[in-house]
Amino acid sequence: MKLQPAFILILVTFACTSEKTQPQPAIIPQPLQMETPPGFYRLSEKTRINYDEGLENEALLLTQYIANQTGFMLEATTERNQRNVIRLELSELVDTPEGYTLQVDGKKIRIKAQTAAGLFYGIQSLRQLMPVQQGETVKIPAIKITDEPRFPYRGMHLDVCRHFFEVDFIKKMLDAMAAHKLNRFHWHLTEDQGWRIEIKKYPELTQIGAWRNSTLIGHASERPEKFDSIRYGGYYTQEQIAEVVEYAAKRHITVIPEIEMPGHAQAALATYPWLGCFDQKVEVWNKWGVSENVYCAGKESTFEFLEDVLSEVADLFPGEYIHIGGDECPKANWEKCPHCQARLKTEGLADEHELQSYFVQRIEKYLNEKGKRIIGWDEILEGGLAPNATVMSWRGEEGGIAAARQQHDVIMTPNDICYLDHYQAGPEGEPLAIGGMTTIKDIYTYDPVPGVLDEEEQKYILGTQANVWTEYIPTPEHAEYMIFPRLCAMSEVCWTAPGKKELSGFMRRLERHKTTLELLGMNFRPFE
Ligand code: ACM
Ligand code: ZN
């Protein structure tokens, strides 16, 4: 890593801080309970990592983190009875699966957790307590932490269709998510503007569907529309997908693939016109918005195709969930299509909303039989919710509230709070964005559990996530700028108990957290 001048200043500040004026630890997300007795552990190259069986992966990652921050290459071993150790221990005494305790004193560092995931989160906290500093010893302030997450679902979504992001960037984001104790990566893989996942049975999806001939320039509202006439695209091979899934799993992140249906399907229809209502030739879309070219809900061939695709997807992603989209599906073609209209009659459906519900329920049944559950955007409530579906509420919280009342699991992602493609400041002086304005404060003060739900209904709120749509985010650097530091605020919404959240304290910690963002190599938006 190349040290920036500002960064060196931070190091010097660290080194000059006397023991008496030792600042309060600045961990993000804020832990549940923390005590800061006086004293230090002196980390040196003689320190050993001592770990329980089953924690090799965590011990190895810790070794890498320490090497990165201090230059010490520590030995990691399962042999007990050593002094001067960082001890990683599995213990039933920690009573939540993702919780941990972390103790640092003059003699040792000890992290205990019930599971490897909890242990991993203890390591992430330790990392943030450890200065970025080279020397003979590195002082880590004494501390006692007892911590656990508020929500089991703590996510980030990334649209790799409007703009494509290489595997290296995905891994970088997974590292950044892990550092913030986020555990679900929602990978938006298919869209009108590009199909990004290799499907062996349908190779043309990535030979044709992954490439568009041109892209809109400027904002979608500008007239006249202008296009760049540059061929654009990319996709992930199944090998790369497996590599990402494994990389994520090592960081205790489950990858949730999103295969959009019945709408946002123009890239699939551009590949295979028979997937649409009128077998019409269309191009992979070159502008932003909602295309009317959606899958035909009448033809059996549509379902055969999607089941084949989902079968490969299910094999690639070991997590329980597959996201099937379900948002923004215009019904204009269905209203005119003889196949769709015949389906309405044979299934006794009242209208096209019920046809969409039929579509989603049929896909859900297929995936349930494969041992998977579905998530859909809140439009899947329209025309009747599929029996086992989890709802991702994006048009505000209303969909989530309605779903929880129907005893369905919910992930809250209301767009005014959770959409990181919105402006975060300005808009003067900011890069072109889709619109909106979502500040750190808007995110930080969000509570994903609506007060209008009773206690029983509130249990269906699994958590929340930040969504990163990329129409106006063409490069990795730009994505990082939009994501950070707002994702830091989101991590605290996901993890931290409501009573422990406080904006001004968060902003102070965020200042110190720049060190972590620098370590992660993030092009974060400057903040004061
Ligand atoms: C969405 O933003 N269309 C889910
Ligand atoms: Zn049709």
Structural features, described:
The protein is an alpha/beta fold and 528 residues long. The protein folds into two domains: 1-150 and 496-523, Chitobiase, domain 2; 153-495, Glycosidases (TIM Barrel), CATH 3.20.20. The strands form six sheets. It has an eight-stranded parallel barrel, surrounded by six helices. The chain has a seven-stranded mixed β-sheet with strand order 1-9-6-7-5-3-4, covered by helices on one side. A hairpin with an 8-residue loop joins β15 (216-217) and β16. α4 (167-179) runs parallel beside α6 (238-250). Bound molecules: acetamide and zinc ion.
Quick gist of this model?
By secondary structure, this protein is of the alpha/beta class. 35% of the residues lie in helices and 19% in strands. It has an eight-stranded parallel β-barrel with strand order 10-11-18-19-20-21-22-23, surrounded by six helices. Strands 1-9-6-7-5-3-4 form a seven-stranded mixed beta sheet, with helices on one face.
